[in-house]
Protein 1
Amino acid sequence: MASPKPRPAAGALPASEDCAIERLGQLMRSAAGRPPAGQVWIGDDAAVVPPPVGNLVLSTDAAVAGVHADLDLVGLDDLGWKALTAAVSDLGAMGAVPSWALVTLCLPPGTDLDRLGRGLADASAAWACPVVGGDLTTADQLVVSVSVVGDLVDDRPPVTRSGASAGDTVAVTGPLGASAAGLRLLRDAHAGGRDAAGPLVAAHRRPTARLAEGRAARDAAATAMMDVSDGLALDLHRLADASGVGFVLDRVPVAEGATMDEAVGGGEDYELLVVTDRPDRLDAVFAAAGLREPVRIGRCVHDPATRLLDGRPLPRLGWQHPL
């Protein structure tokens, strides 16, 4: 990790760059252990890791305080978890396996580095994705930027957004809207001076990357796939745009306690949107892997202008950055 300039003022950050890097290294080693022989992880000028077995898959994501997380509602550890999980989820959406991550931290003076690092370490352990290096600097705005390196393991192609065809079945790997509902509960509790807990709050604070589901969908020869990060409606429109198809949806599975609006446009569910021309094979591969049965929600159609839910046009509902 490179030298942070300028030095932070008094606060929760360690007193020196060396102390900060050493502390982060300790947290990451607690999650992944020490590097195997021949590899170099945090603490040197660059990381050294072995080449992939299959094709290399790369993803990057940034989590910004006040944009991707309201720190009045969630903790710095939750922000760290979410930053790494979002990047890892993109690999899962192509059927890849995460291998390593690089993390850049832009930290205002007074940031609790330990708590932020614990969230990153928790996600690193959960997704078997060691953090092997990165960068550290002070900044006016808290930003956690994560780049993930993954592996397709074999020579089969990845599952992309652009392979769907008319007649293919559209499915999702689980109910939607839990994260948006959790955010609603957190906001209501904060306004009332209360704490909030439960599965919906957990879904917002600590989303799950559907890595096993992504591998199973690739094994089942899914034709197209992406993760539901910005909202089902918006992400399905993006997949349809990339594939040059339309869609007709018959249903949307709604997480218990969430609303239909939250399920359609809430975002940050990280369930997978899976398109297949062999839905029975998809079900069988998921069952053999011990995974929940995918929920069939509709089909792709020839006309790209046809984008319907329950017979009505489905707007591009979801989160987009106001650039």
Protein 2
Amino acid sequence: IYVGGLSDAALRRAANHDGWISDMHTSEELRGYVGKIAAYRAEAGRTMDGFTVLAACMDAFDLDGYKRLEEIGVTDILTLPWLFYHGPTDDLALRTDGIARFAEDNLSYWA
């Protein structure tokens, strides 16, 4: 069960389940939320091992940014990769190209 929300009650609820889903945040905001969740899990005798943090980040757009997110405990990201290459578009070919380029530029790190 993944829980969203930003209130202390929501973060505590997420800490008692399998994961947390963020809204659009900066890396530093995510650091704070993940820190609170880690503290709540520690209070309950749990670690962050196996806990999912699914984040949409407003200031991580490349491999270095994603590494920073990983360091603060983000395990998964939500993104629209074609925006980085072609901007907002409804063109399926451009979206597909953006996804392929994103994979080429970023995913080899995790392979």
Protein 3
Amino acid sequence: MSYLAAVFPPAERLNRLPLTRDQLMLLMAAVNEIFLSVDIYLAHNINGTLTRAEWIPIIFGVTAGVLLLLAGLIAFRNRSLASVLATLVFLGSIIIGGLGIYFHLSRTLLLEGVDRPVVDALVWAPPFLGPLFFALVGVLGISAAWIEAPADSGRLLLPGNRAVQMPYSKTRAYFLIVSLFILAATISSVLDHARFNLENAWVWLPTLGGIFGVTVAVMLGVIARPSREDISVYTAAMVLLILVGVVGFVLHLNTSLIPRGTIVVERFVRGSPLLAPLLFANVGLLGLLVLLDPRERG
């Protein structure tokens, strides 16, 4: 029985889905690569121009998403080949994320000490944690790409009848990866909202929800055998994050609309980032997928 079925018995029906937990994780990773590409395009296009360097993560995100979907189709015939292809894509995602963090921090250091102190520089400079999500998706994807046998043993099967023993089971690793996703999303939210001095009470919702989610996810990653109560609290935290994302999306949408709900594209490009709150919903969904049955089929 999966963790999710332990706290919500009807979820046992999810075991009949045509995709396993790892395959759903890989599908989410592909969607996230494309999602990041669109988000970066909107963020980098605020000035109306995109440099060649700024096009790199945009093109990579779309290309990576397509290649990962292709790898998913190949997996039905040749899982090892699909895993190798996916791993190469995810390694590229980690590299793109690392380079993005470097370039964003370089801009931050240029601002710090010249116009404003370091805290203000972090708030007003390009979000240095933004590119980190490429790296996190890469780590998540590599974890999902290789079969764990037996389930929850931490033993990953590699090509050539080889295997590697990881210090944690894949489920516990997923919990820790999800906690990093939530932490990055929470810090990014705080830095973005700090531009307005955190005066609006609504901006504290993602902050408090994120702290709660990080704490619970880390604890689940540390606990070897979580109880039903532990899983229930974790499930509630992930559902809360999804709600935070939906509420944030609606609030950001409202700030970009002019009276009578008229849509002005320019306000959506330069106003509150419309896709940013959905990151919480995305992470909450990833967290719920961790609770599915870890066993592979066939």
